[in-house]
Amino acid sequence: MRRFLVLLLPLALGGCIVGAVAKTAFDVATIPVKVASAGVNAVLPSQKKEDEKRGREARKQDEERGKQIRMAMERCRQGKPLTTDNCAALQPR
Q: For residue 68, which phi and psi values (nearest 5 degrees)?
């Protein structure tokens, strides 16, 4: 009986060894793909990040434009407009 178990042990463990070898081979084969995709993701910004950046820039431009309009309105109100201020268009209605 003992001899029978000793003979069956390598066969029973053989599946584990084959499975481990197959998993290792799969991991080795997929490593270059994972490395390449990580490199591409690191180099190229995502579309979401680009959209957020454009949104921040647009808000910043809107804020600056509003600041310039408020300053021009104040100059017109004080009677000290610049030559570029269009006081007629800036008057509140």
A: -65, -40
Q: Residues 19-58: pLDDT tens digits?
A: 666 677 667 777 777 777 777 667 667 788 889 999 999 9
Half-sphere exposure of 9 (CA within 13 A, CB side): 7
Instruction: Give percent above pLDDT 90 in the chain.
Output: 26
Domain ranges of the chain: 1-44, 46-93
Dihedral angle, C-alpha 52, 57, 59, 61, nearest 10 °: -170
Q: Are 90 and 69 in contact (CB under 8 A)?
A: yes
Pairwise CA distance, residues 38 & 41, whole Å: 5
pLDDT at 27: 73
